[in-house]
Amino acid sequence: MSFGFLGIQFGFALQGGFMSRIFQTLGAEKDAIPMLWIAAPLTGLIVQPIVGYLSDRTWHPILGRRRPFFFIGAVLSTLALFFAPYSSALWMAVGSLWILDASINISMEPFRALVADKLPDSQRSYGFVVQTLIIGIGTWIASNLPWFMTQLGVSNTAGPGVIPDSVKFAFGIGAFVLFSSILITILTTKEYPPENLEAFQEEKEKNRGFLYGVFEIFKNIVSMPKVMFQLGLVQFFSWFAFFTMWSFATPAITEHIFGATDPTSLAYNNAADSVGNYLGTYGLTSMFFALTLAMITSKIKINRKLVHMLSLIAGGIGFISIYYVKEAWMLHISFSLVGIAWASILSMPYAMLSSSVNPKKMGVFMGIFNMFIVLPQILAALGGINFLYKLLFGENVVFTMVLAGTSLFIAGLCTLLITNKAVTHDG
Predict the structure, then answer these.
(1) Spatial CA neighbour of 242 closest among 124, 376, 134
(2) Contact assessment for residue 38 and residue 247, using Cβ atoms and an 8 Å cutoff
(3) Model confidence at 246: pLDDT above 60
(4) For helices 67-83 and 90-118, what crossing angle results, to 10°?
(5) What is the distance between the alpha carbons of residues 119 and 98, in angstroms, rounded to a whole number?
(6) I need a surface site. Which of 70, 92, 202, 294 has the fewest CB within 10 A?
(7) Three-class SS of residue 303?
(8) Is 98 in contact with 43 (CB distance < 8 Å)?
(9) CATH 1.20.1250.20 fits 4-424, yes or no
């Protein structure tokens, strides 16, 4: 039921690892990059709660509750991912990112709800960790695809304003994997129908209409459980850190480690491929860390809060260490620590959240919860990254990674606010 996340992560990894490279190739300045990303989180802010709400109220006799949204999102995401590197102007690349992120969100949020739908509380840490294991595999492979293409002889350079063929091939492969893996989940997974289907249909007919839906989403936001808000603070600082990485890892590392600043040069494109390779390391590490957690959580109960806090601190150390790296190979160590945080971010908060909300509203609450993911990205894109790293550390673009590490340390400290043992420990 989580296999489709392999394809979703292909989309996210290619988007996170190479859209900034595409933007720079099309003429974007470094400080302008976060603003070019803003359409993605703004769309997520709107799409995620709506999709969650609609999926809670959907039942198809063949496709079930969540799978119709898997399919719609898969079709749109595949098209956007395939065409993104063929953008001939900056506004086209920004538009492709906007459509891609919105479409991936249509599929992704119901996947989170599906795990909570089908597993009892005692197995949810295990379920979300297995999901994270699949995400780690996707991150590692997708992040290395342009490098793989280059090794196979595909051109890694192009004229000014043209995306190299290595990136185009990588995005094309990613589009195929995205669609096919989600299709496998759709074809092989069964969903539980509502306990009383007749009452479910009557409730749906009685409470229908756009304004009612907006009112229900707003009411659920206002009445969210206390634990959800506490987890939201942790997510806020966690995702500020990773949005900073996705926006600035390529310009920061190509400049700080490789001394390459010209997006049309072979040196820059080779360095950008290497950045993808290092980003793949955090996906590979998250895979092994998730595998370790999967083995542990299948046998014993864990303290979710403690695991998450220590993982976030490890990731913070990893980001900050990038500033002190002298040899490029050492970045594998830095991003290995980042991968530990990534694995935990994708599993522990959702396991804790699913233990604290009404199962009948799992989709809408998962969507609302992800507002705490997109709000920090919007803040970062509106100038938060540029303002904070220059104010706190200095003008060198590598200080964006130090800012990311600091944000993860704050996220780790915020976990101390969560004191409800019913959600911090496996049931």
Answers:
(1) 376
(2) no
(3) yes
(4) 160
(5) 33
(6) 202
(7) strand
(8) yes
(9) yes
**Helix (H/G/I), strand (E/B), else coil: 393:** coil
Separation CA 332–CA 322 (nearest Å): 10
How many whole angstroms separate alpha carbon 117 and alpha carbon 111?
10
Assign residue 27 a region: left if phi > 0, alpha if psi is -120 to 50, beta otherwise? Answer: left
Q: What's the rounded Cα separation, in Å, for the pair 308 and 312? A: 6
pLDDT surpassing 80 at residue 360? no
Alpha helices in 152-265 (DSSP H): 165-188, 197-206, 210-222, 226-256
pLDDT of 298: 67
Place of tokens 């989709």: 363
Q: Give residue 291's pLDDT band: very low, low, confident or very high (50, 70, 90).
A: confident
**What are 14-56's pLDDT values in tens digits?**
887 788 889 988 988 878 887 887 877 777 777 777 777 777 7
Local structure of 425: helix, strand or coil: strand
Most confidently predicted of 32-41, 248-257, 363-372: 248-257
**Which DSSP helix (H) or strand (E) runs through 277?**
helix 266-297
> Which distant-in-sequence residues (6+ apart) come within 8 Å of 252 by Cβ?
322, 397, 398, 400, 401
- Is 390:397 a contact under the CB 8 Å cutoff? no
Q: What span, in angstroms and rounded, lies between the C-alpha atoms of 415 and 419?
A: 9
**Boundaries of every domain in the chain:** 4-424
Give dist(CA 269, CA 301) in Å, integer: 46
Could you tell me if residue 383 is left (phi over 0), alpha (psi between -120 and 50 degrees) or otherwise beta? left
**What is the full DSSP assignment across 56-124?**
HT--BTTTBTTHHHHHHHHHHHHHHHHHGGG--SHHHHHHHHHHHHHHHHHHHHHHHHHHHHHS-HHHH
* Non-local CB neighbours of 123 within 8 Å, separated by 6+ positions: none
CA distances from 407 to 237, 286, 410 (A): 5, 19, 5
In the predicted model, is pLDDT for residue 398 greater than 60?
A: yes
Residue 94 and residue 381: Cα distance in Å, rounded? Answer: 13
pLDDT tens track for 260-282: 888 878 888 888 888 888 888 88
